[in-house]
Amino acid sequence: MNLKFEDYIQSQNFSPEAVSLIKEAIKCYKIGAYRASFLMSYYFVLKVLKHRLEQAKNSRPDTISEGTWQGLLNKIQDDSVWDQTVFDTTQWKIADGRSKVYLINNDLREDMVYWRRKRNDCAHSKDNIISYPHVESFWLFIQSNLSKFIVNGGREGLLNKIEKHFDSNLTQPGQDYSYLIEQIPFVVKTSEISDLLRNINDLLKNISYLYIEDKEDDFYKFWKDIAFSTNEAVNEGFIQFITSDHDIFKDFITVYPEKLLMCTKDGELIRLLWNDYFFKRGIINSDGFWDLAIILLENNLIDPSEKGSFVEKLALNGSIQKIKTEQIATLRKHGFFQPIREYLFEDQKLIKPHTGYNTANSLVPLIMFYIKNEELLDDLVISHLNSLLEKMTFGSFFDAFSKYLEENPSVTEVYVKNIERQGLKPAPIFTGDNEEETNDTEE
């Protein structure tokens, strides 16, 4: 069984070098080697900060001169002084007390001095007792504060890198972008990730016409990796970003519908989605339309008193050609076929004199969808179809229905038995009489 701290480590995107150290620290902790555990945990923190400094090499903080910055970057590559150098960066401050390197306050700077002393107690075998509370306290400090050690000035640097990466004049399309996503939680505070994602969106959305809608394009993959990041802060930042603006929400939720359940804390936004936005152009024509509809229905996100109206709109306005086979059973469970039956058959649209044929030809996709997928066709439906087909010998509906009978020969017998049971005469299409008439004419 994992320790809570192990779960935290797994949820973050720390460098492999740093993770190796903290795994060693956890092993030591579990066997009671607390001094060793504390030491490995301490060096884990320094490795994380070293990695962040390296990631920010092109984003020098304004408080540090170019010469000092380059000297720092060189020293952290020196195995003999890297740890002392990284620790020193946590102590550098400007006249008003703010850190020169990180976005941290004076308390955190003093905390680092305290943990440094504990590290010395462990390393130099001093008389001070080091036990599991010291390790656990340090781990709590890591969980609470490590994300706050963000290199000052990293935001603009990251935005510049992203702009260059997605500029085809500077970078060949298809190049790995994961290093850019990894930097997101390190260049701004956790509370500012959503704002950074908005900056990124503003930067990129005008580069491509389809942008994230093209699932073969890097933009779709880039944002998908952000949306489903294993880093909890990035994941939550993405949700805050897309729910902060209704237009952004509509753009992204139709492309990544799986994220909808993470947005349900904003009840007003969810209601606007299904009650207002859902059947307008931006959503109804999207690839994610039916996925979103099923998520809304299956998770009871629609007011029960208004669910029937919503399902009716789905049935009569949604693009049924885009419904996936595996979605049909779920839609049926929520009464999806009843509004279609009422619209096509109870309202007698298909058997009205003079207009029935034209109506049938204009509604071929909807009629055929109902016929093929409604499990039990009742007397009313079959009698109306028989009446419609009595004198119909051509047209788009006739062709579609004929093809359906050819591909499903056993269906014809079912129709004929039902029609005769009702005391009606089967239409020629069911008996083949229209074919005989055609052959006689040709002779």
Notable features of this structure?
26 helices; 4 domains; 443 residues; disordered C terminus; 63% helix
Helical run tally: 26
Q: Can you tell me the overall shape?
A: elongated
Mean residue pLDDT? 91
Compute the number of strand runs. 0
Q: Gap between N and C termini, in Å? A: 84 Å
Number of domains: 4
CA-based gyration radius: 33 Å
What kind of sheet is the major sheet? Answer: none
Structural class: mainly alpha
Can you tell me the residue ranges where pLDDT is under 50 for at least 5 consecutive residues? 436-443
User: How much helicity do the residues have?
Assistant: 55-70%
Task: Write up this protein.
The chain is mainly alpha-helical and 443 residues long. It has 4 domains: 4-148; 153-239, no CATH class; 245-335, no CATH class; 349-442, no CATH class. It has 26 helices and no strands. It has helices at 4-11, 16-30, 34-55, 66-75, 82-89, 106-123, 132-145, 154-165, 178-187, 193-204, 218-227, 232-243, 246-253, 267-277, 281-284, 289-298, 307-317, 325-333, 337-346, 356-362, 364-373, 379-389, 396-407, 409-421, 428-431, 433-442. Helix 8 runs parallel beside helix 10 (193-204) and helix 23 (396-407) crosses helix 24 (409-421). The longest helix is centred in the N-terminal third of the chain and has 22 residues, at 34-55. It starts with a helix and ends with a helix. Residues 436-443 have low confidence and may be disordered.
